Amino acid sequence: MITKSLRGLAAAALAVLPLLSAAPAQAAVALPLADAIQELPLAVESREGYQRTSFKHWVDEDKDSCNTRMEVLIAESRVEPTIEGACKVTAGEWYSYYDGVTLTAPGGLDIDHMVPLAEAWDSGASGWTAARREAYANDLGSERSLVAVTARSNRSKSDQDPSTWLPPLADARCTYATDWVSTKLRWGLSVDEAEADALAVLAEGCGQETVEYEPAV
Question: Is the pLDDT at 9 greater than 50, yes or no?
Answer without folding.
Answer: no
